[in-house]
Amino acid sequence: MVGFKEKVEELRRFESLCYTICVTLLKEEREACAAAERTLSWIFADPAFWAAEEAAKPRYVMRICMRVISERGKTGLANNVPSLQLRAK
User: Fold this and answer.
1) Among 3, 22, 45, 84, who pairs with 32 as Cys (CB 3.0-4.6 Å)?
2) Structural contact between residues 64 and 35, judged by C-beta atoms closer than 8 angstroms
3) What contacts 85, CB < 8 A, 6 or more positions away?
4) For 47-73, what is each residue's pLDDT tens digit?
5) Residue 80's CB: how many other CB atoms inside 10 A?
6) Neighbour-count burial of 13, counting CB atoms closer than 10 A to its CB (0-12 exposed, 13-18 middle, 19+ buried)
């Protein structure tokens, strides 16, 4: 089981990738920051991410970024709490 501190350290490796994807897709810094934060929060709580092989994690981060961004229009990004039922493919 991965502890809180280890999860935070691991997610720091993906912060830049996550933000880059979000800002590239959204073209707006404030929205991109919010989307990246939501993505990292989702991933933090997602057991599938922690079980994934290391090589699959960047692609997984990209997929979650895209999901968070696509769902932001449905409820508004600030209120968007996506389901954690997503499974790695």
Assistant:
1) 22
2) no
3) none
4) 999 999 999 999 999 999 999 999 876
5) 17
6) exposed
